[in-house]
Specification:
The radius of gyration is 23 Å and the shape is globular. The longest helix is centred in the N-terminal third of the chain and has 12 residues, at 2-13. The strands form seven sheets. The chain has a five-stranded antiparallel beta sheet, with no helix packed on it. The two termini are 41 Å apart. 6% of the residues lie in helices and 30% in strands. By secondary structure, it is mostly beta strands.
Length: 519
């Protein structure tokens, strides 16, 4: 599960050698510098003939969003109100940005990627909209999608009690002691400076099936209903930790502000990406805990989205398509799995090579028992029908089996981000990739040649509520998303984009504390 991974990875990776090129004794496993500590930063590769444009990124541990030119120079800054490690800015035609930001005192929820706030900031730095959605029952997290009409589709956690989960047929050994965090999608219509109306919503709890208790109304065979999510996927919940163990985790910054003895592993689905296709009126979502991407119908009403009928698909809010891990709906086995804790799913937009296909950043592709996992970027062609639904194969699973394209580093070792990260198709047919933990942005051709590379050298100075500095290790330069924006984007019309003078200060890692002398 994600929480355990963060704890273990954070501790172990701090001990990884910082020079990944160091020769290792024969038979010893290689290691790597996943977070990019103490390596050259800034522009590290450029070539002739690059498509003119800019790179948009939110600075980690900061409320600022930077726009970089192809030389790696900052040409514009938007300043938000709240620090964040998972901000994801979206540039609008008028030069404003929508972005997710971290509410400083959100209650209850304890998971990675929490936000709780959305802001819209004008080109000249005015806060046009500042909206909070963070209380004991729900919390915005990870990602948004801005619709052509200006409304925002947002991912949110939804609290559920232990007893509610039990009543929906989840096995007791799979229910977190404080209850699971369910997922919902809401469509927000901004209203004034701080308000918003929810004009549409979809809840995952309305589309569950379970084969544990035939007395409950959602009983059935998941193999017969791939359009529903089996509520009994996942790992067994470990025993409750002691209060002493919790205090120890907090003392070494391995527990969040809302961590309790009872809410570990509550984040059972962890949606981390949302993308909207206006032509299809469909929403794509990534769930790394399921190691699946799913697509749902957005042409429904809220009432239809809670049902199994209605909308252009006729399927209401049920899953139109899912890909990556068919074992979740009892088809195939582990050998049929294609995704491992993936992040970011996007349709390739009209006018770009591969339009209509999906790109996915596959974070943790297994590479055998004696070799480290690696990352890959996939492009797949979903089996879309003329009716706007997706073809289910005779074996009960969804295709495709073959990839349209993928990127893997030639040595596998040098391209790896176990969490966050993103990728998207560019107008010239190349693919822009963000290796998130390292804060590495690069452009690759269809032939997998790297033609441009930049490593984020920036980090903000946001502090905890008590004034303490945020610990800089290990996620020093980590960047949730970065986006290539072509030079002819309407946001840049009439604007002179010159490098700022002076440029923002790069972040210098402080030296390690001196070793304590032995008594």
């Amino acid at each position: 599960m994600k929480k355990l991974f963060y704890y273990v990875a954070s501790i172990l990776l701090l001990g990884i050698a910082l020079n990944c090129s160091e020769e290792k004794p024969e038979g010893e496993k290689p290691d790597r510098n996943m977070f990019g500590h103490n390596i050259p930063r800034g522009l590290t590769k450029t070539t002739e003939g690059l498509s003119p444009g800019y790179v948009l990124l939110s600075v980690p541990n900061s409320g600022s969003t930077y726009l970089l030119n192809r030389k790696g120079e900052v040409v514009h800054i938007w300043k938000g109100s709240y620090g964040s490690f998972s901000s994801n800015p979206y540039l609008m035609d008028d030069g404003s940005i929508f972005l997710t930001e971290d509410d400083p005192d959100y209650p209850v929820f304890d998971a990675g990627g929490n936000n709780g706030r959305l802001e819209k900031i004008s080109w000249d730095g005015k806060i046009l909209w500042d909206f909070e959605y963070a209380d004991e029952q729900q919390l915005l997290h990870h990602d948004i999608a801005v619709k052509p009409n200006g409304n925002i589709l947002a991912i949110a956690y939804e609290a559920m009690s232990y007893d509610e989960a039990l009543a929906l047929g989840r096995a007791p050994h799979l229910i977190p002691h404080s209850g699971p965090y369910m997922e919902k999608i809401i469509e927000l219509k901004p209203d004034g400076l701080h308000g918003a109306n929810i004009v549409w919503e979809w809840h995952i709890k309305d589309h569950l099936i379970q084969d544990l208790d035939e007395t409950k109304p959602n009983f059935g065979n998941p193999a017969d209903h791939p359009e529903l999510l089996s509520f009994n996927t996942g790992d067994s919940i470990p025993p409750v930790i002691s209060q002493d163990s919790l205090e120890t985790l907090k003392s070494i910054d391995r527990a969040g502000p809302n961590t309790t003895r009872f809410n570990a592993w509550s984040d059972i689905y962890h949606f981390n990406a949302i993308n909207y296709n206006p032509a299809l009126q469909q929403i794509a979502i990534s769930s790394p805990e399921l190691s699946e991407i799913i697509i749902i119908d957005h042409s429904t009403t809220t009432e239809e989205a809670a049902s199994h009928e209605g909308g252009r698909s006729g399927m209401g809010g049920d899953l139109l398509y899912r890909w990556g891990n068919p074992e979740n709906y009892h088809h195939g086995d582990s050998t049929n799995r294609r995704l491992w804790y993936q992040h970011d799913v996007r349709w390739i937009e009209a006018g770009k090579p591969g339009a209509g296909n999906l790109t996915i950043y596959n974070n943790n592709v297994p590479n055998g028992p004696d070799t480290l996992d690696y990352s890959s970027v996939y492009e797949i062609k979903p089996p879309l029908t003329a009716a706007g639904t997706y073809e289910l194969r005779t074996d009960g699973s969804y295709g495709p089996d073959a990839l349209e394209w993928n990127y893997v580093a030639p040595d596998t070792l040098s391209f790896y981000g176990s969490f966050i990260s993103s990728a998207h198709r560019m107008e010239n047919g190349n693919t822009f990739i963000n290796e998130g933990p390292k804060g590495r942005f690069f452009e690759v051709t269809p032939e997998n040649d790297i033609v441009w590379e930049f490593l984020n050298p920036y980090r903000g100075e946001a502090r905890d509520l008590n004034g303490d500095p945020v610990r800089h290790m290990p996620w020093t330069y980590s960047t949730f998303r970065s986006t290539f924006v072509p030079e002819d984007h309407p946001a840049f019309a009439g604007k002179e984009l010159k490098p700022l003078d002076p440029q923002p200060a790069v972040y210098k890692m402080p030296p390690p504390p001196p070793e304590k002398k032995k008594e």
